[in-house]
Amino acid sequence: MQDLSQYHHPITDLFPWPKTEKEWEPYRLKNEQVEFFKEQGYLSGIKLLEPHQIEVLKKELDEVADPKHPLHHLFHEFHSNESSDPNTVLFHSLGHWRISKAFHDVIWNPAFVMAASQLLGNKKVRFWHDQLFCKPAHHGGVVAWHQDYSYWTRTVEMQHLTCWCGLDDATTENGCIYYVPKSHKWGLLDKPALAGDMNGLMAYITEEQKAEFKPIPIELKAGYATFHHPLLVHGSYENRSERSRRAFVLNVFADGTISNTDEELLHGVPIINKGKKMEGQFFPLLN
């Protein structure tokens, strides 16, 4: 058993890589989809997974979520419950691509790579880090309103992108993600505790922004994804339904992004000094 971050290419046949321009075409976003993303700050309903791929990922999620997994030490973060409310549960982790073959290879899913490149302005894309967000049935916790980049200022310039993909159907009943459209135009806000008070961000926004704070639910079938801008305000409510809500997140940035710190970028990753390009074993080029 080994650290899969050493492999900067797919290691299974779960996500076949196109070999010709024609084979790439089915994955290409339409111009109007890219324009919608620029204006609203998000793009939803992009199919990433077939049913058999979902089943493999769910199986491997169950395996890596076990704190006794022999490669558990490879996680950058692992929270069996990150919720600040002891009556709710939010499983959250970073780094499972280093442990699971399927989660390693989903980073090279051509449907994801094509969309990510287009939404970043047709640039080369580098992997930043992955996340798992799992809310069990009946007592799943919230993810507070936040902007992703408020946690990522240790990298510059801001040319990042987030992709959220459900392994279960995501609905308002089981805690789907909500977006505040056009909030990516508000600039960088202070960051609240990610699994703390749902409305902690409200202390950091203006009265005008509060008036524009009109969240919309992003309900998705399993295997479908939503992409969002690094400054788009988003969050998700608790899960009190009888169904789980399991999802993975892929975070990327455009090639050429540099480190903005002399400290660890992620736990267990060798320091990339401030001003140096983000590259190497843990930040592979995807296209």
From TrEMBL:
Q: Which SUPFAM superfamilies match?
A: Clavaminate synthase-like (SSF51197)
InterPro entries to which the protein is assigned, alphabetical: Phytyl_CoA_dOase-like
Instruction: List, in alphabetical order, the Gene Ontology terms for molecular function in this entry.
Output: dioxygenase activity
Q: Which UniProt keywords apply?
A: Dioxygenase, Oxidoreductase
Q: Which domain of life is it from?
A: Bacteria
Cofactors demanded by this protein: Fe(2+)
By its UniProt entry, which Gene3D superfamilies does this protein fall under? q2cbj1_9rhob like domain
In terms of Pfam families, this protein maps to: PhyH (PF05721)
Q: Does the keyword Hydrolase apply?
A: no
PANTHER family assigned: ECTOINE DIOXYGENASE, PHYTANOYL-COA DIOXYGENASE DOMAIN CONTAINING 1
Q: What is this protein called?
A: Phytanoyl-CoA dioxygenase family protein
